[in-house]
Amino acid sequence: MKKTLVASALAAVIFVPTASAIEVYKDDKNAVEIGGWIDARVINTQGATEVENGSSRINFGFTRDMGDGWKTFAKIEWGVNLVGNSSIETGSNNTFTSESNDFLSTRLGYVGLAHDTYGSLTIGKQWGAWYDVVYNTNLVNTWDGNASGTYTLNKADGAINGTGRGDKTVQYRNAFGDFSFAVQAQLKQDSFDLYADEEVNLFTAAAVATQNKIASVEYNNTYGASATYNVSDNLIVTAGANIGEFEATYLTGKTVTETDLIFGAGATIGVFNSKGFYGAVNVNKQEFHDTDNLDRYIQEAWGLESLFAYQFDNGLRPIVGYNILDAGDEYGDAYNGDVFKRQQLIVGLHYVWDDNTMLYLEGRKDYSDFTSSDKAQQAAMEFSEDDGISIGIRYYM
User: Fold this and answer.
1) Residues 227-247: tens digit of each pLDDT
2) Cα(183)–Cα(169) distance, rounded to whole angstroms?
3) In terms of DSSP bridges, do strands 21-26 and 30-45 run parallel, antiparallel, or are they unpaired?
4) SS3 letters for 182-226?
5) What element of type H or E holds 74?
6) Which residues is 396 bridged to in the sheet?
7) What domains lie within the chain, and their CATH numbers?
8) What pLDDT score was predicted for residue 48?
9) SS3 at position 58
10) Can you tell me the distance from the alpha carbon of 149 to that of 133, in angstroms, rounded to the nearest whole number?
11) What does the angle CA 344 – CA 393 – CA 366 come to, to the nearest 5 degrees?
12) DSSP single-letter state for residue 118
């Protein structure tokens, strides 16, 4: 049982799910796989209808059998800008040019080694240990992951604090019976400056638009851990935490520290890509971990994500999800009584045509509360969380 679980954990680290990986080479020592998917959709939200890329990506996985139970491996994954993203740029004398963004962007890149008994060690840009806790609801094609503390700093990829696709991460994984775990450290040195008219709270200062520098802030190493227990073949429970620290040194000589902390748990029943019922939920508590829709730090919040689905024999899979991220009273105290409650209901219908092709229709109803005495700020907060509907096709490799 232990060797099976370690092998499964290793497969999850090296390769994407079976439906999106193709073995292109294998001999007695080496194996190479290509994976990913191509996804495009038409989406109507925020008062516009557009064609949008659905997080398309391509990845290459490499493994090498070193003997005596040891393997070395590597993975590289790029995001693919499938639909293009050109824009009109203006210059002096009313000149106009077309500017296009990069076709490829780095999503993952790491190397590692593993043993059937001693576990695996990986180094590079990779999914954080925290993702083990909350991955179970991150399966909606269009809207997901924005209440679980994964994609921090206003829906980025979670690279800064290591809860999503963490940069500069060292991670160890192993399993004992039905229990498996991961521990990690992000070894990095980040810093930025704060500006304000006067010396105020560390993170409200970041929102003040002036040129008066008041402090330098360091945000260096972060640490995370997760645990997974297979209660049965059909039930999995998870728990974990991630922590970092901001340290501000003001020009006055005063120092202020704030802890970036998130912890929580999750539970999953069933397998999403299999026939029958699937249910998943995760909850978290966080401090100085994420930002609001105006890029201001949230002092304290709690979050919940849930997803329920049922895949019928004919390939139809209705889904429903409910997500909420609710900031605490300290948020209002810091930002003139503002209220931040991101709250959404997601419904959809997937048609799993075969193991590698899916059509989908998904809708989001927004029930968020973004109240502010500054109506311009409130409108900006509300704009990015609008109702929406999307229809698309995903082709797995």
Assistant:
1) 999 999 999 999 999 999 999
2) 10
3) antiparallel
4) EEEEECCCEEEEEECCCCCCCCCHHHCCCCCEEEEEEECCEEEEE
5) strand 70-80
6) 37
7) 118-396 (2.40.160.10)
8) 93
9) strand
10) 10
11) 10
12) T
